[in-house]
Prior knowledge:
The structure holds two protein chains of two kinds. Chain A is mainly α. Chain A contains nine helices and no strands. Chain A has a domain at 142-262. In chain A, 27% of the residues are buried. The interface between A and B is medium-sized, with 23 and 27 residues.
Amino acid sequence: MLGKVLKKDFNSTWRFFLPLMGGYIVAAGVGKVLFEILLSVMDSSGHTSKVSEAMAVFSFLYLMICVVYLVACYLMTSVFVIYDFYKTMVSDHGYLTHTLPVKTSTLIWSKVLIAVLWQVVVNVIISLSVLLIFTGHFSQLHVRELLRLIAVSWEDTTTVHSIYTIINMIVEGFHRPLLFFACIALGQQWKEHRIIGAILAYIGISVASQILNTIVIVIVGFRLYDYPLSGYMLYSMIFNMGTSVAFFFITNHMLSKNLNLE
Amino acid sequence: MNPILTYSNVTKQFGSLWALKDVSLTIEPGHIVGLLGPNGSGKTTLLKIACGLLCPSSGTVDVCGGPVGPQSKLRISYLPDKNYLSEWMRVSQIIDLFHDFYSNFDRNKAYEMLGRLDISPNRKLKTLSKGTREKVQLILVMSRNADLYLLDEPIGGVDPAARDYILRTILTNYNEQGSILISTHLISDVEKVLDQIIFLKNGSVALQSSVDDVRAQYQKSVDELFREVFQC
């Protein structure tokens, strides 16, 4: 049944992400051309015309807009994941979702997996677009040396540091949507003003997480600056995994035992 | 014969408001039951609890002998009193969706009913009028070979000609081994199709009886009795 729910959720989300990502790919392609113009103008310092200077300014501004678009893509991904969950699980469309012969946990799994899928797609496309823009200039950027210096500064090897970073990103990919889903599920307990309820739940969970985090650090005697970054990353990963499981159970409990569709 | 739907001491409270108070009733298979009551009497709440869209504050609901869950949702075909379909979807996509999830959904029956109403399966829901969208929802619900049809105000807010079409569609398409529970306050329109009635007043069952018994005992039509019981 999970496959059928995934198909339904994919069909209702791709219409949003396809134009968002398509627009970004086009913007990155244009950005590559303008980036090359900008570099050529910078290389020929002292021998530039007014037109090429104006072009360089335009290219610079355009690349800044691309960066804003990039940040907006990340934000819009989260916003749309939240919006889709709210619309299909606790508002009018929930009448269809919750009358399907499917377990509530399956519905939540599908939402989480679709959210992770789009986060991966957005991250891959954005990474590829950055690679595209810098293609031909990697030797000037000294990427390998930069990664090594970051890892060494945290007393790690590049490989260990990269592995922890990737695992943390994956865990975070599950953690973030599950946090939002739990807040919405808690918010729908309010008879009215359910969005405000979800926001209050978010504030409450964030404060509780911080307190729990502090307590755990105090109890285990974790001294952040005595450990390399990977030590902190490992702790963060375990903490996020634990809270993700808790968020899943909160969402499942609220939507299966305390569902209150208006 | 085992009841198809049983409410046992069901109570539902929204804050300080009691939507249902200690409701106990059973629906047997093979009946068309009218769930009748004025606005705010708890009709929608009663149906939503059976569908799993609301959880009761106390009491239990059994559907075909089991609790409300994925199995009961397969056996219940529910028509809510609001539009619950995504507007971007085409009619054919919604039919595919129902066919995917409900093993008792008859795709051919759905297309046949759409054809009779001249509704193109390629139309997107957002291009359809409110009335046509309601008809599409009714077609989806009645194309299922369900054990229990829960219809919430199916004739509310439509013209008399559309009411006749809706009632005709319900009567000619439901699974006769199953039961229908129709919630409405438009008694005179549905009275002729009902076998049984349940009067709901302020969240409590005021009366559950067969239509024949009502006529024999009170010497009145259901509509007349309703006006008497719910007199303002």
